[in-house]
Amino acid sequence: MRHFFLLGVFSLTLLCSALLLFAVQPMVGKILLPWLGGTPAVWNTCMVFFQALLLAGYAYAHFLSSRVELKKQWLVHAVVLLVALVPLYFLRFDAGRIAQYYNPPEESSPIVWLLAVLLASAGLPFFAVAATAPLLQRWFSRTGHPDAKDPYFLYGASNLGSMLALLAYPFLIEPIYGVNQQTFFWLVGFAIMGGMILLSGALAIASPAETGSGPPGTEKPQAAASSSTIVTSPIRPAAGSTISLAAAERSDRPVNVAASAAQEAPKAPEVPAPGLFDFTGWAVLGMIPSSLMLGATTFITTDIAAIPLLWILPLTLYLLSFILVFSRIPLWLSLAITLGVGSYFLYGYNGAIDFKDFYDQRDVVGLFRVLYKQTKLAPFASWSFLAFILGTVIASRSFMAQHTLMVLLLPLAILAVTFRYAVRTYLDLTEVEHISLHLFLLFAVSMVCHGELARTRPAPDHLTYFYLAMSTGGVLGGIFNTMVAPLLFKQVIEYPLMAVMACLMIPGVSFGVYRSRNWAIPMKGLEYLAQGAVFVFGLLLGCALMLIHFLPYSSGKKWFDEQPLWVRNLSPVETFIYQLDDDSHVLYRERNFFGTFRIVEDQNNVEGWTFHKFLHGTTDHGMQCYEPAQNRRKTLGYFHHRNAIGQIFETMRERAKEKDRPLKVGVMGLGTGTLAAYMEPGWSLDLYEIDPAVVQVATKNRELFTFVPDAIDRGVQVQVELGDARRKIGKAEDGKYDLIFMDAFTSDAVPVHLLTREAFELYKTKLQPDGIVVINIANRYLNFEGVLGNMAQATGMSAMIQGGDPIQDDFKYGTNWVVMAKSRAAFGSLPMKANEFQNSTGEKWNEYWIDLLPRDFAESKVWSDDYSNLPSILK
Questions:
Q1: How many folded domains does the chain comprise?
Q2: Looking at 211, 229, 250, which one is the last position of a domain?
């Protein structure tokens, strides 16, 4: 009973600390996001900060446990917890209080500012919690509990708590509680956790191991028992074991490992301490999945939204790999989880499955008929599900079987992401399945690298040193992605290259149990062959990736056209060539804290026009007909002169004539500056943009875009404000604008802080009595109609919406524009305006304004700076 209570307290304390550790990360990221325009890089920088503090916590735990006796460790850590409680109580992670005295820079990278604010608001509390996991595991290893000789299983429990916290945040915490409530609950949780840590330390002091509980270095050698525990582990035996796991598996009868060890080695040899080479290897293995996790997160959040749910998906898979490799999951449990998740995925894909045939016949034929129908509907999903079940059955048999399976799947995952556009086209993947390719790669790499860490883990005496090395790698991965890669590469090449690095680490594989001498050599030969094949694959693909990103498209295409027919007919070769970067059409390329964008030149063979396009991430943010020059003022794409924007400015021209004065327009989000083309002489245009590189491209380089320079030449009064749009427009005089445009995007993601109640109350104060707010809500993943309908009712505004369908021949994109005003009369003649369109097939339709009504207003919360719930509007 005493042992059960001891283990329960330690496990519960580690679970609690992990919950706090990983609940604070999305919470703090959400608090800081509005200060830097909602860019996804905020989360990556927060991750680097948290990884660095995690490293500091592990270093502190390593120093404390290796230099100080247990009672003094308990006292020192108690002081650390009390000191960390002070800034937590007074600040509650409120970055706004700090930012009042230390504003973010406007013309340089805000990384230093962000790290400083994080250190002041969250540094000490996070450090205190971060040190808990290794410190408590080391304390537990020095107790008299039977499991104390191998405390690594507690690491799996810690990561389980971390994963639960991450999953709970977007689905349970964020939809219900505002940020202020979240910070209060975290403060209470920290106080409870501090008490549990002190209780755990007191129990460790009161329950010393039989070999002694003095300061480090006074423990007596543990011979037979220690050897028994290490040898029977599914991970590799620690150095110094006198009988190996392979030898035990080769025997035809059960082996009493502990007895054999005691007979052959009455005194166990001292396990050598890990050296610098071991530390470096563990650090690299920790660096690769850390870097890849940030790369996958950037890809997903750039296209959808910088929200906790999408931060958490990659991080959850990252932590899940730790749980799987440091824990022993039974076969039946793995199969149950796989069947449950896979059945739900299969059932939900393409709608519900009709199981009528199975219910009618109640036989195996009916079941196979159902599976066959679903396979025809979604072959990629179905066969992936079946392969996943088979892989789970194989992997669940032992740790090495699991590890080997992931090593062999790694090249497949890397190829799927490297040639993702070809795979997506060939398999006709949906957006969700396309994103799943990246998550599959992250999981495979994490399982391989973390599996290697588990396979090569040291004895418990060196536990804190091992965690220190892993944490060092995590920090290096974050620094590489956030600070080094943007300086070295103009493209996001570090993402696939880190996956290739996992192959170059030559992970260990095992194809089975050696039952006789005759099988040992061939199976070992296969293992070496597999390791070599994975290494060569990584080497070749690494070279290929360098060619894809740095060899001009024209050179590759010329080589391809000169090859024999049989070479040109090879689909992988053709796919590779056509993925080469077409530098001949790239006019400008930029990568900085706020994202990656490029300006490309495109030709229209029918009209004979030359276009310049602004591509941010994977989204086209505007285009200009550059040649012939007389068409440069012609607005296209999302701002097409015949869609909702054209109707809005037609109404504004009428209003300018009625009032006999020039109009004043504010635009949040510059892009190409297309809206400047609608401006008339004498009008004023205030442009708010957070990215200095975008300002340079759109306003100061006529060789790329001329909308803004041409407007200045026409007599438009243009003012550019650099910084977060909401904070900048808040400094404008009240009642200044006739029109305010919200058109700020990062690729396809919308900054949420521009769509909150406080934001719209601010816009109302900056509008004329008949002024209009215009919001671009075109998005592939999110539907903002209900949010803005509820917002209009909550703020007492009138709202209308107009959708638009694309017309390729007329260079018109599909759009959704919302207009909001203080009263319906402020819209003037706009509600009556409409346009008729016809596509190349002769189909005709009208695009017109309709009222935007609230949706479930009584049941849903209006978004505010304290509360928002993007997962609820995912399409």
A1: 2
A2: 211
At position 426, the amino acid (one-letter code) is: Y
Q: How many CA atoms lie within 13 A of 561 on its CB side?
A: 6
For 304, residues 6+ apart whose C-beta sits below 8 A from its C-beta are: 310, 748, 749, 780, 781, 782
DSSP state of 483: I
- CA 417 to chain CA centroid, Å, is 16
Q: Which of 268, 285, 291 is nearest to 211 (CA)?
A: 268
pLDDT at 27: 87
Give the range with max mean pLDDT: 419-433, 522-536, 587-601.
587-601
SS3 602: strand
The first and second tokens of residue 830, run together, are 């706009």
Query: CATH number of the domain that 174 lies in?
Result: 1.20.1250
Structure-token match 């550059």, residue found: 626
CA pair distance 623, 613, nearest whole angstrom: 4
Determine the pLDDT at residue 245: 33
CA–centroid distance for 101 within its chain: 31
Gap between the Cα atoms of 132 and 125, Å rounded: 11
Does residue 436 register a pLDDT over 50? yes
- What three-state secondary structure class fits 385? helix
List the structure tokens of 521: 């050599």
Per-residue pLDDT of 675-693, as tens digits, reads 999 999 999 999 999 888 8
Residue 540 identity (one-letter amino acid): L
Structure-token pair, residue 459: 């004895």
- Lowest-confidence region among 74-83, 338-347, 419-428: 338-347
Question: Which residue's structure tokens are 């730790």?
Answer: 322
Q: Which of 195, 211, 227 is the last residue of a domain?
A: 211
